[in-house]
Amino acid sequence: MKGQMDTELGKIIVDEDVLAKYAGSAAVECFGVVGMASVNMKDGIVKLLKRDNLRHGVNVSLENEKLMIELHIIVAYEVSILAVAENLVDNVKYKVEEYTGMEVGKIVVCVEGVKVVS
Description:
The protein is of the alpha+beta class and 118 residues long. It has helices spanning 16-28, 81-100, and strands at 2-7, 10-15, 33-40, 45-48, 58-63, 66-76, 104-115. Strands 3, 4, 5, 6 and 7 form a 5-stranded mixed β-sheet that branches. A hairpin with a 2-residue loop joins strand 5 and strand 6 (66-76). The longest helix is centred in the last third of the chain and has 20 residues, at 81-100. The chain is elongated, with a radius of gyration of 15 Å. The relative contact order is 0.22.
């Protein structure tokens, strides 16, 4: 899947990895998000990703000319998961639309774990 936009000068194609990395970067900037999570479906193990692996906690697809983004996150202990998720959706939607010029149709937030932050 590649994001695509047509302009009067030609066609712009954006790779899925670029969209996923940008969405992951926007996600970890949000208050209450400790980081992105990688889920090993075989073992059921959740791993906190380092900053250079943000793409692995994000799935991006294109449906009906709109981006669908799925974010797997780990949240900080003692913060409202609902408030974090709402802030995350607003921030990622705004930044991805501003950055790419493509419309975001849906963002799914999957909270994979909670971590105590000192």
